[in-house]
Amino acid sequence: MFEALGISPYQLYGQLVLGLINGSFYALLSLGLAVIFGLLNVINFAHGALYMLGAFGAYFALTLFGINYWGALILVPIGMALIGVFIERTMLKRLYQLDHLYGLLLTFGLALILEGAFRHYYGSSGMPYAAPKELQGPLNLGFMVLPLYRAWVIIVSLVLCFSTWFLIERTRLGAVLRASTENPILAQAFGINVPLLLTLTYAGGVALAGIAGVLAAPIYQVNPAMGSNLIIVIFAVVVVGGMGSILGAIVTGYALGILEGLTKVFYPPASAIVIFAVMAIVLLVRPAGLFGRGE
Question: Structure pTM?
């Protein structure tokens, strides 16, 4: 069937896996955005820059301190969470009672500052970051050979995404988080420390961006533009899934990554716009997104 279209099964499988890998990063990053918007009502345009900062954190840990990939995978998200605490406590907490536009402008400016500073000191060319030896080499799937590190990225992304969804949607802590954002006055009356929960929520979203940056470092070169090249796509994924929908961000991230991979097989020129075309169609048919809730 596919041979009649001039497409080999191996080419199709390869693009499907590539789409799944891209979808893993789309899902992980859009998850962080959805958590922050869904619980804090902040449109965090700095998410791409924080993702870039996570990749640079892994690079600095190795080159400056000799900390390998496994150490960076633990320490960088912790460091990014602390950066998130600083941003939320010193900047974002002043904007919660204002229009969403103020948070968007603040985080957009923060993204420009971070990217501009790293571009000034490290230029535009990427810097390599090797995958750990334990994850180097091929993985034979029978129908194709998949680099072991890419399989690792897919598995870690799935575990993180659905663990975060379970934490927020199916645990008491998640219920407290949702209650604290939907009715903070009532939550405080029950003795809940709402400001602390808001800070931890933003820190958790930033930590997810940091993890994605560490995972991406061995696949994509570490460079200051890696976040800005991705953030528009991530916002499109969040819009399609539904602003603030945790499950929507995960499912839509993987689905649109796979769709993008398939488009590269059947009509490559459209692969750069297919996600935005889907976003336009979804907004026309269902403005709240596929998993979003209307007003």
Answer: 0.93
